[in-house]
Amino acid sequence: MGERNSVCVFKGPSLAEFRATAESVVEQLGGKLEWEADYESAPERPLTTKSELWTTHKDHIHAACVWRRNFDPDLEYKLFADLGCAFAAPWINVRIQEGSLWDYSLYHGPKHLHNFSTVPEYWETDPEFVAGQRGDAAELAAVWSIPRSSVENYLKPWGYKVNEEERYFETTLRGKAYPIDDHEYGDIWQMADFMRALGTENPDKSQGNCLLHVLRFPAPKRF
Question: What domain count does the chain have?
């Protein structure tokens, strides 16, 4: 199993609105959000788990990622979906999958708009499924209020070629989507270039603009 990374990006609210709504959504789900708290020094609480929440903020665009320390991925999705619904604004879930590809799902409030995957064949080669993972550059640009030309080159399939003898697959598309990018087609971290085109940065605690917070939720019951 390779690298996994799931980031949600929200467009519209101010920083104050983002924080107030995030606190409310976390509380409604039974948890607590401690802003700018250090995970290592934050005390343990009886019958609870703590996880890192990483965020970056630029104007009215906010990116958030949960570092899964005993964190339920279903709860993570519900947390961000509830947050997107509360804003009634565009949001996008961008993911690195299995260290092999990146993809995204685009929403506006509760409405799912479309999916994109660089290598949908990794999961399923059925033509109908693959066709449903091609994205829509015009819709993305319209919803996000950015030029189509700034994102459409990312929405290209990488190609899928199976090496039967070695039992692995190769991607066939080469080069960069845009000359200013740091990463090429076939590189999972092209996701970071795509996120910059959306007006944000990948939340990474090695970056100076990344803020770390602590999420607490009741520990799962053991039977």
Answer: 1
